[in-house]
Amino acid sequence: MIAGSVLSRELTGLGSWAVRVVLDGTPGPVIGTAGCTVLDADAWNLGYRFGPDAWGHGYASEAATAALDAAHRVRPDLPVTARALTSNPASLRVLARIGLVERWRGRSDEAAVADPTGALGVQRVVVADRELSDQLLTDLIALG
What we know:
CATH topology: Aminopeptidase
Number of domains: 1
Distance between the termini: 18 Å
Structural class: alpha+beta
Number of strands: 6
């Protein structure tokens, strides 16, 4: 993951970051990661992951906003996209809070793994900061 982020930064000027809380000027331990990388489909992929102890404190919203702003500065011509499962409503709320709009919702391979019987109705959601071409949306759906 670190090597991928370093390569992304070298190729595009942006990658993922380690997220730490700073208290009284002192950085604490890493609580998660966040950032944007360019997909082969010519779009930014905004992503974040945090440990359970960091959930519910607004860190994901703050980090996702910083990643969105950075992507808009580095390559404003590329759409910023993200993908999440409906079984993670907190992540969907973060994506909506930072202004990304749902562009597709449906079953994907990853949703099928998360909900193999379909009983829970788990679906994949694709969001973006702008309209997407049919081809780009197809490519994003194929990523899972």
